[in-house]
Amino acid sequence: MAYSFAAKLISVSKRYSDVTAVKHIDLEVKKGEILGLLGPNGSGKSTLLKMILGLVKPDTGVINVLGVNLEADPFAVKKRVGYVPEGSYIYEFLTGLEFLDFAGDVFQMNLDEKKKRIEEFLKALDLEGREGDLISSYSEGMKQKILIISAIMHKPELLLLDEPLNSLDPKSARIVKDLLRKLASQGVATVMSTHVLEIAEAMCDRIAIMYDGQLLALGTMEDLRQRAKMPNSGLEDIFLELTGTGDVKPIVEELLR
Ligand SMILES: Nc1ncnc2c1ncn2[C@@H]1O[C@H](COP(=O)(O)OP(=O)(O)OP(=O)(O)O)[C@@H](O)[C@H]1O
Ligand SMILES: [Mg+2]
Q1: From CA 10, how far away is CA 64, in angstroms rounded?
Q2: What is the pLDDT of residues 182-212, one digit of tens each?
Q3: Pocket of ligand 1 (CB under 6 A)
Q4: Ligand 1 nearest-atom number relative to CA 213
Q5: At the topology level of CATH, where does 7-89+156-219 sit?
Q6: Which residues, at least 6 apart from 221, have a Cβ–Cβ distance to it below 8 Å?
Q7: Domain ranges of the chain
Q8: Could you tell me which residues come within 8 angstroms of residue 111 by beta carbon, excluding any fewer than 6 positions away?
Q9: How does the average pLDDT of the chain come out, rounded?
Q10: Edge-to-edge strand ranges of the sheet holding 7-16
Q11: Where are the alpha helices (DSSP H) in the chain?
């Protein structure tokens, strides 16, 4: 189906009892772009990703994913989206291979293709030889790698990644970063939350800064520099300026009193 954006959100909000996690967000995710989602803890990043996935239902607004209205047809796009949740929630009682096999079946992958892709990914991410061990025996980084493989191996058109590079060693992080850039060049759209501003600055085509459930700024690094009136600054300074969280010195001094 022809569609112009990988995801389009119009005035999307979500409230959990007395906390409004996301407040009337409008956002368009372009095909082939890596969009970085930044924001302080609790600013609504994970909630936003879960709504684009269809895991959390918005209270207001419309979400269109890959040309499909999520509310009208929530299952139509599931196969075309990959998701890495935050905090490596994963079935600990399966082996890595069993989990990937299961994920491939959920996405209805062709059996030969599934086997081939799993082998390639296990090798690339240094998990070869450990795929038969229970996930409960894996390190955090190994669990994270299994989740990343399960999100990518079925060749989704939209990737929703919640802090995907947390706990990866430098080599694996590099492989995943290169892979995401390559996928972007093939037209895959990625929305990726991260607290690692160097990663956002180096990898993302555009950056969205959330604050208290709202979209504070959205654009390229150049756009954000202009917006913050900080023409020569890096993302960390711009982020701290825009979110008003820059002046940490009194806090540290208070703690050490
Ligand atoms: N299931 C839930 N029930 C109640 N409140 C929730 C739930 N999920 C999130 N919230 C609240 O919604 C707000 C946004 O949470 P969210 O997890 O989206 O933030 P975040 O930007 O991903 O934060 P972090 O950087 O810590 O991952 C927070 O105030 C949080 O307490
Ligand atoms: Mg989160």
Answers
A1: 9
A2: 999 999 999 999 999 889 999 999 999 999 9
A3: 16, 19, 21, 39, 41-47, 86
A4: 14
A5: Rossmann fold (3.40.50)
A6: 201, 207, 235
A7: 7-89+156-219
A8: none
A9: 92
A10: 19-29, 7-16, 60-65, 68-69
A11: 45-53, 96-106, 111-124, 140-152, 170-185, 197-203, 221-227, 235-242, 249-255
Ligand 1 centroid to 47 CA: how many Å?
6
- pLDDT (average), residues 97-114: 95
The answer to which of 52-56, 91-95, 216-220, 249-253 has the lowest mean pLDDT is 249-253
User: Per the structure block, which two tokens stand in for 9?
Assistant: 């959100």
Three-state secondary-structure class, residue 61? strand
User: Exposed, middle or buried by CB within 10 Å (0-12, 13-18, 19+), for 123?
Assistant: exposed
61-91 pLDDT per residue, tens: 999 999 999 988 878 888 999 999 998 778 8
